[in-house]
Amino acid sequence: RVKDKWAATRPKYPPTSLALQHFDATYSAQLGQLWPSVRVALLSERKYGALLNNFSHDAVLEDLRAKGCRDFINDTDTVAQPCLEEEPVTGVKEESSDVPGKKSDIDGQQLFPLRLSPHIKCAVFPRGDITRFKPARPDMHKLLGYYLMDAASVLPCLALDVQEGHNVLDLCAAPGGKTLTLLQTQSIRFLCVNDTSVSRTLRLRKVLNSYIPKECLTERNLRITSFDGTKWGEIERETFDRVLVDVPCTTDRHSVIEDDNNIFSKTRTGERRRLPQLQLELLLAGIEAACPGGEIMYSTCTLSQIQNRSVVEQAIHLAQEKHGIRLEVVDLRPLTHMFRKTFHFAPDLHLGEMVIPHLAANFGPIYMCKLRRLT
Ligand code: SAM
Predict the structure, then answer these.
(1) Would you say 272 and 249 are in contact if contact means Cβ atoms under 8 Å apart?
(2) Is the peptide bond before 365 cis (omega within 30 degrees of 0)?
(3) CATH domain 2-373 topology
(4) What is residue 77's predicted lDDT score, i.e. its pLDDT?
(5) Whose CA is nearest to atom 24 of ligand 1?
(6) Which residue of 4, 39, 344, 352 has the fewest C-beta atoms within 10 A of its own C-beta?
(7) Atom of ligand 1 nearest to the CA of 249
(8) Cα 299 to ligand 1 centre (Å)
(9) Number of neighbours of residue 324 by Cβ within 10 angstroms
(10) Which of 69, 192, 249, 301 is catalytic?
(11) How confident is the model at residue 33 (pLDDT cuts 50, 70, 90)?
């Protein structure tokens, strides 16, 4: 009986099937021969990383190492490989232009080491090892030892390059994995954490309380709000040294696996179609909120060029046209070069970098593009 009723109310095309149909049409064109393997990985069990909580008193990393994990950031066998000078590429990288820093220029350029926060640590099991992490345990102060998240989500925070004394804005922060990562740097003077959803902001508060000591979560160093981030430029302009704009997107992995709360459900078609506009408005607001010389990281967890590259291109153009703000794209190849043994990066992206899912390293998708305000 129950089964009959379930069959009668089940949509003919569940959102996961609609998502897969949509991705087959768009990503086979976008990724070409890479798409079939990325598709298999997207449909397979994802891999997690354990973001180490520096505020915990337990020897968590040693325990995880004993289980076969390594901190992919600091235990890496590629230890801070020499890399390209961070030469700015003004505006948008062109495939065949002669701008300095373009991807094909990788050989023959001056090499410099990469600057990363030494405090961000993330443990992963080796390539091809799909062991699952156990839930984190609380220490004697009830702080959890690690936070499980897609290890590739750590990269935008690492690449944001938070420095001592910085004021930082996390514009779309809930449930808080990247906020926690940024806080691990222990360098931030003031952190502004925002998410328009009140319920998700509550979740984020709970996450912070489970990982960060109370004395570090005071009004002097932290503000948590639930504003519409697109309006941030009207509230606080030219204020932050670093801005993370981790926008809502089609969350490709969730969309092909889970029918619940799926952006491809018929009732959410309008919301899904409006995503690129919302993403653009959020990125523009983040750009306005950054101070001249400040840096903005745009990130998503979709493979979609329309939500990634096109949004960044339009934002660069509109920031100049509407607000007179000039931006440069920061070359993230040093970072992808350093972590090439942990993640699979999309080749020839022209603007930003993207971790693509792979069966042996099933992280991502994570897209990131870093901008620096010149004016
Ligand atoms: N950064 C988060 C993390 O690492 O845990 C994930 C952020 S999630 C990809 C995108 C978030 O954007 C959602 O929590 C959603 O509620 C929020 N959001 C959607 N529209 C927004 C808006 N107009 N202003 C601010 N946040 C928004």
Answers:
(1) no
(2) yes
(3) Rossmann fold (3.40.50)
(4) 60
(5) 229
(6) 4
(7) 9
(8) 11
(9) 8
(10) 301
(11) very high
